[in-house]
Each structure stands twice: as C-alpha cells, then as structure tokens.
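Lab manual, section 2.4: Encoding a predicted structure.

Procedure: take the sequence of the chain (258 residues), apply the prediction step described in section 2.3, and record the output as structure tokens. A sample record is shown.
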Amino acid sequence: MAMPTDGRPHLRRTAAALALACAAATAVASPALAAPLSVQVVNSRGTPQAALLTGGGTTDGHGRAVIDVAPGESVGVTRGAEAPEGAAGISYSVPNPVPAGTVTVTLPALPGVVSPGIDGDERWLFDRVNQERAARGLAALGLSSTLSRASDAYAHHLHRTGAFSHTALATPGVRATDQGWPVPGGAAVGETLALSPNRELTLDGWKGSPGHWTLLMMAGLDSAGVARAGNTWVMMPAQCAVAAERCGLGEDPASVPP
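Recorded output:
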C-alpha cells in the first residue's frame, strides 16, 4: 500500500523510535551514584573492633565508620597484616542501592579469656612496675580491663600450647583490639613476656632485660594489663589515645563481658 503523500505516519514512527533509543542510551550510560555507607565492625563474639579500611581509612574506637562508596565497590576491613583475616581483610561488596542502614562486618575472634580477674601476684607485679616508674618521675600506669583480658587470653594460649613468642596468635596490638582496644590496628600497644615460677623472678627478669625494662619505663604510656597462666606472665603497656571508655581504665576485667 502506498504511503500517504505527506508522509506524516512514517515521521511519527521514526520520531518515536528515536526517542526510545535516546532513553535507552541514557539509562545505560548513567553511572551508579556514590552514597554514604555506615559500617560497624565487630568480631564473632560481638566485641566492637577498631579497624583499618580499604584506601587508608579507619573506624573510630567503637568500630564505626561512614564512608562514601558506589554500588559494586568492595570495602576491605582488617585489624592488621598479622590478624586472622590478613592484610586484605574481610571484603564487603556494596549492593545497589547503597544500604541506608548500618552494615555490620564481622571479623574472626581470637581465643577468649580464661580467668580475667586480677589475682594477688598479678596485682603485686603491676604495683611494683608503677613503683619503679614513680621512682623515675614517670606517671603511673592505669590498670586496663581491656589489656588485662588480652593478656589473660594470650598467657593461657602460650601456657596451653607451649609457644613463647609475641606473635604466636597475632601481634600484641591485634590481640588487644580483639578484646576491644580502641586504637585502629592496635597501635601503641607493647608487650613483655616471662617464663618464671614466681612474681619476684618475673620482675627481676624484666629489670635485667634492657628491651623489656625500657618499654615498661617508657614516658607517655598510661595503661597496662597483666596476667599469668602457670609460669607464663604477660604485661601489655600502652597509650590510650582515643575513646578512653574503651580502654577499660578502672574496670574489673572479670566484670566485662567476653
């Protein structure tokens, strides 16, 4: 059948087809928009974890962060290269659309505490270290429930396995973070170890070791935890730089949930 002489039906069909093609091209070309993502990092016991994020970011001392992401991106979360999750960390893939609520990322927990309360020998050792600091004009270390729990968990791990190393499970900082220490990556956490039958020989051994004693007498430190399991003694001195309530100063380690 011949087309009408003015050709209008043909033009209408062409115009409609072009409009649809333009709309489709626009839909394909539009990138997914970035949006803020709220993240909460915990371990498998539910303890908030101060963590390192992809691209150099960090959470706060409560394991919380808000970051700008786009759908399809991956966010890596780790406590450090020596943590169970490794340097690459646990990866969270951002869905489309970016979730409006808080997303929880769960990291593997390290072995937990066994007997976190401070006994008489542990308290004696802690007090003697502070007496030595006072004699040198240094500020006393506050007893940290967070660091004492980390010390207890590690002392029992070493005693149970027969290992004797600062990295038998993870670095001191990672182990402290596992118990809730608020500095991302566990920075500014040190550790002294001893194999000794009693508290006096433990103190004498640390005093006779320049590396151990320099750490315990370091200016700027304000916190420490202490624990023993059998003949294995652990003290973890540190500086509580952020989220002081997470450092557990003045709290009974035995009263803090695991």
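Check your result against the sample. Residues 75 and 92 are 5 Å apart (CA to CA).
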